[in-house]
Write a structure and sequence with these properties.
mainly alpha; 434 Repressor (Amino-terminal Domain); about 55% helix; about 100 residues
C-alpha cells in the first residue's frame, strides 16, 4: 500500500503548538512517549505519523486528536500552512494574529 504524503499543515501546527506552550522538542517527545527523532520528523513534515503517535502528541499538548485536527484545519483556513507568521495559542486554538 502506498504511503500517504506528509501534511505540511500538521507539521507546522504541531511545532507552533509546542513552541506556543514553551515546550522543548525533547520535553514533548518524552511526555508523548516517542523519540525526539520521531517528533522532529513529524514537525519537519517527513513521513506520516500513525494515529497512535498523533494521539500521544496531542495528549502531551493537552489536546484530543480531534482538537489537534481542528487546529490543523484552522491553520489551513487561515493560510497558516507554513512556519512564517502564524502562531497559535494552544489553549484556545485560535490564531494570535490575523492575516
Amino acid at each position: 500500500m502506498p504511503r500517504s504524503k506528509p501534511d505540511p499543515a500538521l507539521a507546522a501546527t504541531v511545532r507552533r503548538l509546542r513552541e506556543g506552550q514553551g515546550i522543548t522538542r525533547e520535553a514533548l517527545a518524552l511526555e508523548a512517549g516517542i523519540t525526539t527523532g520521531s517528533l522532529a520528523r513529524l514537525e519537519l513534515g517527513y513521513g506520516s505519523p500513525s494515529w497512535d503517535t498523533l494521539g500521544r502528541v496531542a495528549a502531551a499538548l493537552g489536546l484530543s486528536v480531534v482538537g489537534l485536527v481542528g487546529a490543523v484545519e484552522d491553520a489551513v483556513a487561515w493560510g497558516g500552512t507554513s512556519h512564517a507568521g502564524f502562531d497559535y495559542v494552544a489553549s484556545k486554538r485560535r490564531p494570535t494574529r490575523f492575516p
